[in-house]
From TrEMBL:
Protein name, UniProt field: Doubled CXXCH motif
Domain of life: Bacteria
Transmembrane segments: 65-82
Keywords assigned by UniProt, alphabetized: Membrane, Transmembrane, Transmembrane helix
UniProt source species: Rubripirellula tenax
Keyword check for Membrane: yes
InterPro entries: Multihaem_cyt_sf, Paired_CXXCH_1
A Pfam family of this chain: Paired_CXXCH_1
Region annotation Disordered: where it falls in the sequence: 499-518
Doubled CXXCH motif domain span: 203-232
Amino acid sequence: MRRDEIPLTPPPSNDRPADRWMCGRRGAPCSRGPIQSRTLLGQAKCCMADSCRPKRTWHGRRKQFTLIALCGLVIAISAVAFQSTRAVVIKAGELSTPHAQILAGTLDSGRCAACHPKSGASLNDWLFGSAVSQAAADAHRGLTQTDRCLNCHHQTMDRTTATLAHNLPPVVRTELRLASLHSRDSSWKNWLPGESVDQNDIQCSACHREHRGADGQLTAMTNDQCQTCHSQRFGDFATSHPAWVDWPYRRGGAIEFDHASHAGKHFPSTIKDGAPSAFQCSDCHARGASGELTRSTSFEKACQSCHDQALQIEVGSGIDLVTLPSVTDKTAVTIGDWPDGAVGFFDGRVSPLAELMMRADADLGTAIHKVPHQDFSRLDDQRRGDVEVASTVARGHRDLLDEIARGGQSVIAKRLARNGISAATADAILRSLPPQLIEEAHSRWFLEKRNSNTAENLRAGSPAKLAKFTMKPSDDDLLGDDLLGGDDLLGADPLSHDPLATPIDSAPQKPTTSRFDADTMLPAGGWYRDDLTYSIRYRAAGHADPVIRATIELAAELAPGDPARQRLIENKAAAACLQCHPGALSQSNSAVESVFNAAAWRSSPLIGRTSLGQGEGFTKFSHGPHLNIAGLVDCQHCHQIESPTSSVDTGTAPVHEFKPMGIETCAGCHHAEAAGDACVKCHRYHIDLR
């Protein structure tokens, strides 16, 4: 093809389309176009000899419209900005009902500033920044919207952990993540990109979206929102939720109760109204005012009829405050004042409470530790070291009673405090202990013998003092002696006989008093003195005795390896309580579980807790809506009691008494087409470690 035969593209009608002007002759565009210079009236000059009236191009008209619209918008915004009602005109949307109710009485200008830190500034502050506004800005520098949220929600959330994921420190989150690795299967979703959120700086607005109206739910969250942070991705509840294993069991509890033995053995063997007693879950787990099941019922309602008599016998032995040990004659000589009834051979154990009080003296504490198992019967009177140790510890008992007799309860409290015992625990033990009881015991056991020894010394030849006699008015009767009746005038004269001429028995007369019967004399419990065993003891009144309870709490405050702690919890009265209340001594070193709860006596509900330290944490559940379903009214539909068989290998009972629940138990109803399977139905986000 020749060059002149090649078709050429026709030139454009307007070779300058970005110009603002075009030729106005016949309304057609001009290839030359007007020049860019304009007159004062905005008319462009035409470069042709026969000039035309230029018109704006589409680009020019669009630019002109944009400029006019922009100016109008600036004017409108400026007009609104200077109005007092700008907070009503410019807002993201209506507040949710809880926040709207709180801010109902607040001025429109202050409603935004209550949550948004920068909304309180005026237009002048934004544009010009006065000195006052600059000072206010410096004072609130670094203040976030989350800080404003915590101004109201600080009672339910700790400020130091509010922006942490699940309000948990990184070390706790790491512990939980590692603990859950074995319970999850690998999934292709784990190959997706990881989380893009800083889990140590999560603002409230990341999950709680406001300005969605009165019907908006601030706590509503989707599963996709949860997966934004979770490194282990998951699908629906039925197919991807980790296995529960022992949930909801093994969550701990303040009261120990064997469901298997009661349901299979004790209740069937108890005849009531001619028939075996029925084991009904609702007898102990009744529905409360909120519709939720109670964790347990009272001792008087559920346990007293069967266990009260045995419990009275167990706790009736009580606990010793101080018990004098028995020593040999050789040791008694080195002690000094010591009751004759506690002399003969080594016997008796140092009571745990007396050991704690005497351990406040370092030397005395060392001597106590030299007594094997704090048992005097293990000492040998043929060994000089044992005699010295026995003498030191025995004198410690005597001096302790003497100090308490003079100083009262404060002496005991101070000595216990040196062993780390809190004042509240010590006060609970001492509240019913009268100091006069200690003073009387000290006087009877030690001072009477001292006075008896003094009398013997007088009889042996020591100068005796003349007796003093007091004449009563009733004795001064002149007619008391009838001289005519043959009475001797000096028959009633106290000075007619020489008291020193009367024979004196070589052995002093011991008081013949019977032993104090605490079971008969103290049915309601209390402190008493036992002169047969030379002890100050407490007799418990039965269930929930305050002194025995305080003694167990005292033991819980001691170190686990302390021998006094072990002997306290082995006491019959304390052991009877701990059979059903093992939580009173529970301790844990886990960062997730609670660290020692000395007041774990009542069975508090697990439902509704938000704290990992209280046993539930992430999981929440309510029996109320489930009990409205006919098939779930029977508790054993979900909670089936395991057969109380023993293990062949170890001979021990199963780790718990219920069969484990499977996910399929809940997945039958909890799916997207029925009750729903959202994460927040069963899991909390905010966790409190306090």
